[in-house]
Design brief:
four-stranded mixed sheet, alpha+beta, single chain
C-alpha cells in the first residue's frame, strides 16, 4: 500500500476548472492506494478502460502494460497539455500499440 494525495471539492465543475488552470482548490486528503503497476501485475488484464481526468499520463507511461491488448482512454490535453498527450501516444506506439480510432478526446489503442 502507498498513500496518495487527492483534493476533495464539492463541485465537479470547479474541480475540472481548477485542474485546467493549475489552481486546485479544496481540501487535500490522503488515501491508501495500491500502485497501478501492482494492480496490473496481479490481475493481468488484457483490456484497459480509463477516464482519470488528467491522471492518464502517469498511469500510461508505465512499463506494466505487457498483457494489455486494448486501451480505451479519454486523453485530456486541456488538463495535462498537448505535449503530454503526444508523449502518451508515442510511448504506446513504442510498446507496440496503434491508435485505431479516435472520437474527440477518446482513443482506442490496440496492440499489433
Amino acid at each position: 500500500m502507498t498513500v496518495a494525495g487527492y483534493y476533495s471539492t464539492l463541485r465537479t465543475t470547479s474541480f475540472r476548472q481548477a485542474l485546467s488552470t493549475g489552481g486546485i482548490s479544496g481540501k487535500m486528503i490522503e488515501i491508501e492506494s495500491i500502485p497501478f503497476a501492482d494492480v496490473l501485475r496481479s490481475h493481468s488484464p488484457d483490456v484497459l478502460v480509463m477516464d482519470v481526468e488528467g491522471g492518464e499520463h502517469e498511469l500510461l507511461m508505465s512499463d506494466g502494460l505487457a498483457a494489455i491488448r486494448h486501451i480505451l482512454v479519454e486523453l485530456h490535453p486541456h488538463i495535462i497539455g498537448q505535449e503530454k498527450v503526444d508523449e502518451i501516444r508515442n510511448h504506446l506506439v513504442s510498446k507496440g500499440f496503434v491508435a485505431e480510432t479516435q472520437d474527440r478526446k477518446t482513443f482506442h489503442f490496440h496492440r499489433i
